[in-house]
Amino acid sequence: MSVLVLLLLCAVTFNRSFCCHDRDRTLLLIFKQGVVDPSNRLSSWSSTNQHCCEWQGVICDPYTSRVQQLDLQNYNYMESGSESLKGEINLSSLLALEFLEELDLSRNDFERINTPSINTSVVSRTLLPANISLLHHLDLSQNMHNLRVDNLHYWLSQLPSLTYLDLSGIHLPCEMKWVQSLALLPLEALYLRDCNLTSSILSMAHANFSSLLYVDLSLNDFTYGLPNWLFNLSNDLSNLQLGHCSLRGPFPDLSGYRKLQNLDLSSNKLKGSIPDWLGQRDGLIGLDLSNNSFQSSIPSNLLNASSLAILNISFNDLSGTLPKNLDLDQRHFEILDLSHNSISGDISNMLLDGGYILMSFNKFKGRLPRISEHVIALELAHNSFSGSLSSLLCDPDPRNKYMLVYLDISNNYLVEELPECWSSWASLSYIYLGNNQMVGQVPPRMGSSFSHLRALDLQNNGFSGHVPSTFCHCTSLVFINLEGNNFSGNIPSWPQNISVCEAEIQSIYRHFSSPAL
């Protein structure tokens, strides 16, 4: 009866069940004893404030008022004057919260994880029997002070319900006991990014990770190969991150994972061909193979894969032409990055559709291709495109509202004058047309069409005449480069916030009379 009265009193007094269990409150205060809190984030955590369900980061069950979640992630960790918590993580006290399901201490500056011995700990009387923890989500990642972990294998063995574990950024012990404990958990998501791991640490002959769906082992050292168990995960594996892992040799055989949605093998030392089986994965959404040494041509089925939204194969040694059956106007990429390869061919009859189309530093030729209204950034610099800019910009569909913000076609062989058809491209903020062979005057309409223009680069062409005064109305303009042309007349009064390099100013002065900056 007294318990019922207490619960009713809490509900009436506070209009919610803010009263929390004495045990939970005591354990949280024990955890706080080891925390250094320079920004006073945990000021509500006080013995004088009995209602721990109101404390910062504490989330309780609305019916039982037992602590279910503890979220102390530092959401402002990138800002100056960070609110990072420091000191020690007393994990024993937190794991003794018998109804705790989610624990997030990420992006702070903790120095050590401590698990006091049950025999000597001040919380020993409240610790739970082994293997009954309800914790299923644990995130200790990105603690900036090279967080040290003691007894990792011990406390992993106390978490039989754990399905999500993120220890990214923690340098883990160079012994295998903790890995064996890890293999016994029902993990679905495992993030061990930048954990100082090597092939030998993870080289278990037998490990059962049959429930894993998401794996991130990026920024570790697998010079001597990937651990064998990585090739025997669940057939339902959907996300595999192995970027920056010093992988060598041919493309690893991951063909058994038919439900892959995202695969990252970027910034390794892989070579050979990109396998055809990647294009046969109907559910593949994101693929990053950038910064390797892949050769040969791009598999035609990969570029035509209907589900693929993000493809980055930049900075490789790929050659050949784009597949003849490629139908980019029927494919919408969020990101298509083919830059820094040796891909060639005439793509003037293509309609490029996507958010970010990056094809710089290749050997494409012919007229410029057309783009859809969905393209936000288009990079075609350092190729061999020729002809007029009109083939790209003019005759757009008047029914479409074009979203192009960033345009870089510098270092090609474009000729003729700048077109007048800029009114359909009002979203443009960055225009780089330098190092081509264009001539004539800059049309005044170009200056009046862009209310958001921030950067304009026309260097090293053959432009002449006056620079239109309409550019003075581009109040967002912060950079302009006109050097290496044949302009004459007065320099317009640029917006006060514009930034022009000294070398560019001197070059402009040589071609203008009566400068008026």
Report the mean per-residue pLDDT as an integer.
85
Approximate strand percentage: 15-25%
- Helix fraction by DSSP (H/I, runs of at least 4): 10-25%
Largest sheet: 18 strands, mixed
What is the fold's blueprint, element by element?
Blueprint: H1 2-14, H2 22-33, E1 35-36, E2 58-60, E3 67-71, E4 86-90, H3 91-95, E5 102-104, E6 109-114, E7 137-139, E8 148-149, H4 152-157, E9 164-166, H5 177-182, E10 189-191, E11 214-216, E12 239-241, E13 248-249, E14 262-264, E15 269-272, E16 286-288, E17 293-294, H6 300-303, E18 310-312, E19 333-337, E20 344-346, E21 351-352, E22 354-358, E23 363-366, E24 370-371, E25 377-379, E26 384-387, H7 390-393, E27 406-408, E28 413-414, E29 430-432, E30 439-440, H8 444-448, E31 455-457, E32 462-465, E33 479-481, E34 486-487, H9 502-511
Parallel strand pairs: 3-5, 4-6, 5-7, 6-8, 7-9, 9-10, 10-11, 11-12, 12-14, 13-15, 14-16, 15-17, 16-18, 18-19, 19-22, 20-23, 21-24, 22-25, 23-26, 25-27, 26-28, 27-29, 29-31, 30-32, 31-33, 32-34
Antiparallel strand pairs: 1-4, 2-3
What would you say this structure looks like, in words?
By secondary structure, this protein is an alpha/beta fold. The protein is 13% helix and 21% strand. It has 9 helices and 34 strands. The strands form 6 sheets. It has an 18-stranded mixed beta sheet, with no helix packed on it. β2 and β3 form a beta hairpin. The longest helix is centred in the N-terminal third of the chain and has 13 residues. The N terminus and C terminus are likely disordered.
